[in-house]
Amino acid sequence: MKNLLKNYINDLKTALDNLDHQKIKEISNKLIEAKVNHNSVFLIGNGGSSATPSHSAGDWTKELKIKTICLTDNASAVTAFGNDTAYDNIFKGQLETFLEPGDIVIGYSGSGNSENVLKAIQYSIEKGNFTIGITGNYKSRKGGKLAKLADISLIVNTTSMERIEDVHLIINHMIKDYIKEYLSERNE
Questions:
Q1: What's the CA dihedral at 165, 170, 175, 180 to 10 degrees?
Q2: What are the residues whose beta carbons fall under 8 Å from the beta carbon of 112, sequence distance 6 or more?
Q3: Cα separations in angstroms, 27 against 86, 106, 152
Q4: Does residue 147 form part of some domain?
Q5: Angle formed by the axes of helices 21-36 and 161-187, nearest 10°
Q6: For residues 40 and 68, is the Cβ–Cβ distance under 8 A?
Q7: 130-173: per-residue pLDDT in tens?
Q8: Which of 78, 84, 134, 167 is 20 to 30 Å apart from 107, CA to CA?
Q9: By C-alpha distance, which of 118, 110, 95 is closest to 42?
């Protein structure tokens, strides 16, 4: 048990040490641009990769005043699209209604291969919107298809889904703090 806990912490530290800071800055700057231009940011993901965007939508809306919407938070829409069309359409279907020019779509997927996330990102690209993929090396896939598809991709360097999900929330808090600092400096 002691080795399990130590290994978990060591792997988490390694994943954090290997984060691409430049990409975190690029993502943060794109979100600042969305705020300045009064655009919306849509967050999508499944399971734990849905909980993190939900948490972050609350933080970014309240603390940053960025119009941030987590598309998993509308259970009626998710289940209607899943039941009436296909589960692969739960995000794309909502984006067909809400997505406006200049909006940003951020897809979260530990494997990078969630079909509903990929379908929504592809739709967003076809509409000319900027896309971001936040993914991991789950099952050694190096970010999966999402990493290749999105305009900016940030890959968490661990094969553990738990650590990927841990780091995704840390990334979102880092983005929030980066933007708060930027906004604070601009107001001084």
A1: 140
A2: 133, 135, 136, 138, 141, 142, 143, 144, 145, 146, 147, 155
A3: 30, 10, 7
A4: yes
A5: 50
A6: yes
A7: 999 999 988 767 899 999 999 999 999 999 999 999 999 999 99
A8: 84
A9: 95
Q: Count the Cβ atoms, other than its own, within 10 Å of residue 76.
A: 7
31 located within any domain: yes
- Identify whether 3 is part of a domain: no
Buried b (16+ CB within 10 A) or exposed e, 52-75: bbebbbebbeeebebbbbbbbeee
- Burial status of residue 95 (CB atoms within 10 A of its CB: 0-12, 13-18, 19 or more): buried
Total domains in the chain come to 1
pLDDT tens, position by position, 87-134 = 999 999 999 999 999 999 999 999 999 999 999 999 999 999 999 999
Enclosing domain of residue 79:
26-187
The CATH number of residue 67's host domain is: 3.40.50.10490
Establish if 66 belongs to a structural domain.
yes
